[in-house]
Amino acid sequence: MNDIVIWGLAGGLAAEFLRWYKLRHSAKLPEYLRSAVYWIMTIGMILIGGVVAWLYGQYGDLSNPLAAAQLGAGTPAMLGALAQGGADNDVAARGGGLNLDENEPHPSKSAMRNFLGFRG
Q1: With 60 as the cut, is the pLDDT of residue 23 above it?
Q2: Whose CA is closest to 11, among 55, 58, 62, 66?
Q3: If residue 35 lies in a helix (H) or strand (E), which one and from where to where?
C-alpha cells in the first residue's frame, strides 16, 4: 500500500473521529452506534477516502501527503452532500442533528441523510 492511500485512510479516519468526538458529552449515546450497518458504513467511508486519494495519486497530480489526508477527510462530507440532494440544507431550521425515533427500528431516510451529511 503506498503512502498516498495511507494518508487518505488517515484523513477519513480523522473525519470519523471528529464525529465521535462530538458525541463525548451526550447524556445518551445514539442508538445507531449499536448498529452493525453504522459500523459497516463508517469503515466504508474511511476506505472510500483512501480509494479517492489513490485515484488522485494514480490519475492526477497528488504527491503531497497533506492533500491526500484532506481528500480522505473530505470525501465522506462530499458524499454526504450528494446524499442530501436538493434538500434544504438549513439544519437548524429543522431542529438540527440526527433525530432517531426510539420506537423506529431503522433510521428514516432523512435521519440517514443527516448522518451522512455529518449532522449527527
Answers
A1: yes
A2: 66
A3: none
Query: pLDDT digits over 65-114, tens only?
Result: 888 888 888 888 888 777 776 454 444 444 444 444 444 455 556 666 66
- How far is residue 59's CA from residue 72's CA, in Å, rounded to a whole number? 16
For residue 90, give the C-alpha cell: 438549513
**Mutual angle of helices 3-22 and 36-59, in 10-degree steps:** 140
Q: Which three cell numbers stand for residue 102?
A: 426510539
Residue 16 burial by CB count (10 A; 0-12/13-18/19+): exposed, middle or buried? middle
C-alpha to C-alpha distance for 115 and 42, rounded to whole angstroms: 11
Query: Is residue 6 within 8 Å of residue 46, measured between CB atoms?
Result: no
**Alpha-carbon span 61 to 58, nearest angstrom:** 8
- The distance from CA 62 to its chain's CA centroid, rounded to whole angstroms, is 22
Kindly report, residue by residue over 28-64, the tens digit of the pLDDT: 888 888 888 888 988 998 898 889 888 888 888 777 8
